[in-house]
Amino acid sequence: QVHLVESGGGLVHPGGSLRLSCAASGSFLRLYAMRWYRQAPGEQRELVAGSGVSTNYADSVKGRFTISRDNAKNTVSLQMNSLKPEDTAVYYCNADVQDSVGSVRTYWGQGTQVTVSS
């Protein structure tokens, strides 16, 4: 079984910063692409940033958010700067994982709330 656990969410004022982290644990052979999604109330879940062969970002966060990985620690982080109220959402970690029997599956974390408000 593979678990993704996010941390680092919270309440921040507009213009502030937060750093989200996601740690993968359990029995697996390899992590492939790792991503951050978010879902605001009443909205569809959207891709925020991804890290695989290359990195990619949603247009709405380019220049403000940075995704990074520590492959030795099986973690992915999302540094969020210049936060705006419209960044308020539940943020989810997502990863393509090759499990102990060799299959590649996509796993999700439980989500962490980010609220940007004055």
Give the helix/strand layout:
Layout: E1 2-7, E2 10-12, E3 18-26, E4 28-39, E5 46-51, E6 55-57, E7 65-70, E8 75-80, E9 89-99, E10 104-108, E11 112-116
Notes on the structure:
With 118 residues, the chain is mainly β. The chain is built from no helices and 11 strands. Strand 5 and strand 6 form a beta hairpin. The radius of gyration is 14 Å and the shape is elongated. It starts with a strand and ends with a strand.
Provide the succession of SSEs.
Answer: EEEEEEEEEEE
General form: elongated
Helix % is: under 10%
Alpha-carbon distance between the two ends: 40 Å
Major sheet summary line = 7 strands, mixed
Beta-strand residue fraction: over 45%
Structural class: mainly beta
CA radius of gyration is 14 Å
Number of strands: 11
